[in-house]
Amino acid sequence: MQDKIEVFGKGSLIQHGKTNDRVYLMKMEKNDFPGVIEYIQELAKKKSYSKLFCKVPSWAVPAFVAEGFIAEAFIPLFYRKQIDVFFLSKFLTSGRLVHQEHKKLSELVHLLSSIQGIKKPVQLKDNYCLKLLTPERAEDISELYKRVFVSYPFPVHDAKYIRNTMKKHIQYYGIEKDERLVAMASAETDSKGKNAEMTDFATIEEYRRNNLSLILLEEMERNMRSQGIHTLYTIARLNSQAMNKTFLRFKYKYGGILVNNTNISGNIESMVVYYKHI
Question: pTM here?
Answer without folding.
Answer: 0.95
